[in-house]
Fold:
Amino acid sequence: DAGVIQSPRHEVTEMGQEVTLRCKPISGHDYLFWYRQTMMRGLELLIYFNNNVPIDDSGMPEDRFSAKMPNASFSTLKIQPSEPRDSAVYFCASTQPSGGLADYNEQFFGPGTRLTVL
Amino acid sequence: LAKTTQPISMDSYEGQEVNITCSHNNIATNDYITWYQQFPSQGPRFIIQGYKTKVTNEVASLFIPADRKSSTLSLPRVSLSDTAVYYCLVGDTMDMGRRALTFGSGTRLQVQP
Structure:
């Protein structure tokens, strides 16, 4: 398996523009997570899906952020309009717990998308 | 959510054993302890996980005392390639519907030649 795939790897845009980040989870994984990492705030969970359904979006910073998972192999994170403070590395991760309590702790992360909003 | 505390940074030399301790005083009965490693410009990578006593895999060992209020990640004979940030996480299983991980600030390990 190729692992979690994210695109683009780098994105530079201007304030006010719409940004769409994409993620392809590992095949067979039912859980998909979006994280954001900055120097100031570290690694933060934004939202996660189970079987394509959003379960917890309490980490989404504001209405400018939205995420979708139209099918089991694709998810998007959209920022509209983008602002300079959105500059960060955005990670997608997936996992497939086998049933035990501990299973969900092993998540597989993608390489991330480095977003710069000018 | 159980909060974790770990040193901000550590330095070591190649060939030495490195032990990184994490405190998690409020760990819940069903919580597991998990460690991740993150290299620059990469996503975090799962290293090891345990519930109590000792767990060992090909990469590291995890020591958990009986009270489970702390844990120690042990990296044997580190090399320059072990330079990374190491995160200690405690899984919150209070709500079985939640599958989220909470990352702290991590420990930045610098291995010198």
